[in-house]
Amino acid sequence: MTHVNAPQQHILQVSELTKKVRFILESELRTLWLCGEISNFIAASSGHWYLSLKDSKAQVRCAMFKGNNRYTRIRPQNGQQVLVKAKVSLYEPRGDFQLIIEQMEDAGDGLLRQKFELLKNQLQAEGLFDQRYKQPLPDFVKTVGIVTSSTGAAVQDILTVLKRRNPSIEVIIYPTLVQGDAASELISDAIYDANERDECDVLIVGRGGGSLEDLWAFNEEPVVRAIFDCDIPVISAVGHEVDTALADYVADMRAPTPSAAAELVSDDNQHLLTKIQHYRQKLVHLINHKLQRSSAHQQLLNHKLALTSPEQQLRGQQQKADDLHARLLQSLNVQQSQLQTSIAMLQQRLMAASPKQKIHLAHSKLDDFQGRLVRGLLQCKDNKQQQLARVAQNLNIVSPLATIARGYSITRDSNGRIIRSLEQVAINQTVTTQIADGQIESVVTNKQYKATAD
User: Fold this and answer.
1) Hey, which residues does 441 pair with through a beta bridge?
2) How confident is the model at residue 5 (pLDDT cuts 50, 70, 90)?
3) Residues in contact with 169: Cβ distance below 8 Å, sequence separation at least 6, in sequence order
4) pLDDT tens column, 16-40
5) What is the C-alpha separation between 88 and 27, in angstroms, rounded?
6) What is the pLDDT of residues 87-129, one digit of tens each?
7) How far apart are alpha carbons 286 and 415 in whole angstroms?
8) Domain 14-108 - what CATH class?
9) Measuring CA to CA, which residue among 191, 311, 319, 206 is closest to residue 253?
């Protein structure tokens, strides 16, 4: 029987397989949007939701954990069409393929929400929402323009607030549809009309609350661009506080409700009266302060006028002239005394610096220098003579001539070198011997070495 050797392979455990499959699903598919019908919905006691999404051909298990489902606006029901944002995953313990839902909306609202985000990102990239384009609201508003439905609750709320807070504000309504297919074009036309007429200080654009579909006109691009192009400061007041429209992002200011927008543009009458009273008190204080300063200035001018009268000035000039005359006399006396002292000092310096005196002093110094020079020369001569005698005496002591004079002689070879050894001469060599009274030339005929003891 023949055995076939299979190639060596790593054998997976089931848990390893499910882990690898889960990793592949989560890393490859990541986040996706999915539309389907809810079935088998279960709201667990833990707060998590478990359900299936299906269409006519397939279904997939889903889980939405309580950290995400608490932000969902709808309450899921079996048979409901929804749009979900989810991650593909695998429940490892059972090997079940499933979706982890992060966001869920009604299918109709969900598609609108996607369209909302897409247009928002586009307009934001163009810079329409940049803070640098925002205009400040005027401090005092005389005329308010309102772009909304003339029969809706929003305009009534705005008028009620304005009448209660500041009935002096004039209101101009630019009526338009705020819901339906044609609403966005009509709203943008009304905004352009208000901007062209330029008859209001601030413009409120908005409507009352409703569903996302009801408010959709304020998410349309024509409305957003009309608000951006408007030279009049625009307040967006669309729906309720929880509602957000693209008009809110592009407007110069967002109000949570139409009533809140009316409050932003109107000061309360009591508040105005309080401000007027405050300004009145401040004005009175400033006037009183100005009067006090003017009175003090007038007194100062009167005092200066009294000081600058011709008679007063003449007396002052006379006194000043007398003082200057006395100071001049004193200065002249001081200068005269100083001049006399300087003359005496110069005379003394002139006598001290007389040429005759300098010549006499120079002669005296010259005679002294001559005497000191002669004495120095004689002394130097004596010293040199004594020094010469000592050197001659020392030289005579070590001189060879003195040695010769005592009976000694010096023998030299033909080159004048002193002969100190028999090795320096040869037989028949001529040598010269110096004695006290002359020289003797001789020829060497014999050399006899000194006998040495054995």
Assistant:
1) 432
2) low
3) 141, 142, 143, 144, 162, 265, 266
4) 777 887 777 767 777 888 888 889 9
5) 9
6) 888 888 887 888 899 988 877 666 677 778 888 899 989 999 9
7) 134
8) mainly beta
9) 206
Q: Quote the tokens at residue 310.
A: 């011709």
| DSSP secondary structure code for residue 418 in this structure | B
Class of domain 141-271 (CATH, top level): alpha beta
Q: How many CB atoms lie within 10 A of CB 399?
A: 12
**Predicted confidence (pLDDT) at residue 4 exceeds the cutoff of 60:** no
SS (H, E, C) 59-127: EEEEEECHHHHCCCCCCCCCCCEEEEEEEEEEECCCCEEEEEEEEEEEHHHHHHHHHHHHHHHHHHHHC
Interval 362-417: pLDDT, tens: 888 888 888 888 888 888 988 888 888 888 778 777 777 667 767 778 888 888 88
Measured from the Cβ of residue 32, the count of other Cβ atoms closer than 10 Å reads 11
With beta carbons less than 8 A apart as the criterion, state whether 69 and 49 touch: yes
What is the Cα–Cα distance from 186 to 192, expressed in whole angstroms? 10
Helix ranges (DSSP H) in 130-244: 153-165, 183-197, 221-229
Residue type, 438: G
If phi over 0 gives left and psi between -120 and 50 gives alpha, with beta otherwise, what is residue 151? alpha
* Closest of 424, 429, 423 to residue 441, by C-alpha: 429
Question: What residue segments make up the domains of the chain, in order of their start?
Answer: 14-108, 141-271, 404-443
Neighbours of 350 (CB within 10 A): 9
- Cβ within 8 Å of residue 42, ≥6 positions away: 49, 50, 51
The C-alpha atoms of residue 301 and residue 321 are separated, in whole angstroms, by: 27
Question: d(Cα 197, Cα 112) in Å, to the nearest integer?
Answer: 34
Can you give the pLDDT at residue 62?
Answer: 93
Q: Residue written as tokens 């062209």? A: 196
Q: Are the CB atoms for 51 and 81 separated by under 8 Å?
A: no
CA distance linking residue 33 with residue 48, whole number of Å: 20
DSSP conformation letters of 300-348: HHHHHHHHT-HHHHHHHHHHHHHHHHHHHHHHHHHHHHHHHHHHHHHHH
pLDDT at 54 > cutoff 80: yes
Spatial distance between the Cα atoms of 232 and 196, rounded to a whole number of angstroms: 10
